[in-house]
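G., the chain you wanted modeled:
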Amino acid sequence: INSFGETAIAGSTIALNFEYFTYYVITAFSQTATTFTSQNHAAGQHARCRKIFWLCLLLSTVCSSIPIFTIVLFRNFFCGLFTPDLAVIESAGIRIMCILLFEPICNLYEIPAGFLRGSGYALYPAVSSMIGTCAFRIVWICTVFRMNPTLPVLYNVFPLSWVATILLVGISLLIASLLEKSKVAKQTGEMREIQT
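Predicted structure as tokens:
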């Protein structure tokens, strides 16, 4: 971003404030999913774990979308609280439209990641994030952005990397679900052997 000049830096900084604010809502529900899932998973209450997952996903999506879409709709007003410079406000608006507008999709990997951590599968979301977020962005910058070095192309890597992370966390969720089912089947078989 620094290579685009001081207006882009100032605009990006303003927009980033809104991204942090709204992302805290998402991570709060992710941590909630981790905490309550771990308690119920340890107690063997798998039906409650599924309910926690869906409630956290729904509530996080609703509670994060309200401020996100409010900021997106009134972006010039909110950016104007930080600066009177119209060029900076316009630059902040570009970032808001390229990144913040799509931030609600982060719920689709943050909540499942919290659920996986609470279920004892913390490594899966960590690896998914490293590949889907970090590696994807590095590859993007070295390929696509290098061919078309514009601010929107740079910003577009964020929602695209979130989609990649969603896919990887979804695969992780499927793997963890299969492992849990086999674990439950094995425990059920052992209990039958003990009873006979």
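Residues 128 and 168 are 5 Å apart (CA to CA).

Shout if anything looks off.
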